[in-house]
Q: What sequence folds into this?
């Protein structure tokens, strides 16, 4: 009888021993898995090579064509009558100085298509970029910079010597919400060696040299709704106040106010697009175009546009 009891005890105890061994084995596997998936500590900036400190991004603006033939439009950029398709390309080449801030080179290029193609290197801006300000769900990222004197077509023709300003994006993105807000923030002041110097295309378009820009306050507030992680809707307008070189410092002019609506799509971190329809319902009599005053939608002041942006590395 005692051997039977001992056998039963050993039989009933065996699963307990086996279970303990299995638990230990599973625990070891979990530790191994956690160790293999754990992220290595990020390398300190001072230990990074020159190549690892570099970064590059871009921001492309496309505007046009309008919804009419545009034959009565003379653009000051080309001096040619026609329906212009305007584009502006901004590249950002960065070199990390600290964990938060980078030295930022921003070359800008312009391209137009009317009856002929015209393209040119417009300017080079240099400054410091990074996270400028953050509070709660609000974030301001961008670059404080200035044009390099006499570098690029516009800077050379207008005798530009200094242009401190900001090219940044202000966003409001509350957590657990599909709604967000975004605006480009672009204030700038220009200083010239000759206030009357302008490019030949400016004069060919019938513009006054005194209308060359001295300062600008420009914002593009938009409201965004994320339908999916990649696809969304966006609507907004442009707020733009400018001062000419011939104006007093206290004189500011409201520039055209575009109203736009369209969709956004993020393919990857390197490719994000915003395609929209843009019109000027508040500016029926736009400066320099001799339009009949009106309010509302007009085909000749409406166009299709696209913003494309991304981080390459």
A:
């Amino acid at each position: 009888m005692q051997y039977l009891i001992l056998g039963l005890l050993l039989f009933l105890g065996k699963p307990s021993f086996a279970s303990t061994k299995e638990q230990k084995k599973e625990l070891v596997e979990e530790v191994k898995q956690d160790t293999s998936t754990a992220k290595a500590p990020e390398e300190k900036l001072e230990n990074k090579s020159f190549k690892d400190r570099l970064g590059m991004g871009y921001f492309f603006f496309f505007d046009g064509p309008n919804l009419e033939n545009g034959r009565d439009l003379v653009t000051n950029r080309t001096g040619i009558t026609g329906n212009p398709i305007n584009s502006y390309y901004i590249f950002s080449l960065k070199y990390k100085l600290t964990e938060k801030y980078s030295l930022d080179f921003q070359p800008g290029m312009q391209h137009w298509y009317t009856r002929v193609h015209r393209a040119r290197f417009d300017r080079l801006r240099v400054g410091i970029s990074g996270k400028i300000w953050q509070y709660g769900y609000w974030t301001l990222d961008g670059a404080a910079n200035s044009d390099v004197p006499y570098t690029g077509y516009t800077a050379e023709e207008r005798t530009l010597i200094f242009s401190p300003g900001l090219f940044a994006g202000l966003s409001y993105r509350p957590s657990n919400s599909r709604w967000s807000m975004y605006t480009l923030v672009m204030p700038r002041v220009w200083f010239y060696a000759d206030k009357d110097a302008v490019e030949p295309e400016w004069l060919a378009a019938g513009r006054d040299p005194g209308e060359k820009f001295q300062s600008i306050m420009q914002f593009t507030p938009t409201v965004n709704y994320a339908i999916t992680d990649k696809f969304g809707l966006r609507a907004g307008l442009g707020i733009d106040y400018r001062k000419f070189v011939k104006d007093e410092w206290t004189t500011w002019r409201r520039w055209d106010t575009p109203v736009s609506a369209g969709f956004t799509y993020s393919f990857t971190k390197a490719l994000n697009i915003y395609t929209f329809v843009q019109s000027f319902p508040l500016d029926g009599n736009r400066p320099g175009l001799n339009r009949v005053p009106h309010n509302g939608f007009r085909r000749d002041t409406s166009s299709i546009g696209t913003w494309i942006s991304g981080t390459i590395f």
Remarks:
- The helical segments are 2-37, 153-157, 200-204.
- The chain is about 15% helix and 45% strand.
- The first strand starts at residue 54 and ends at 66.
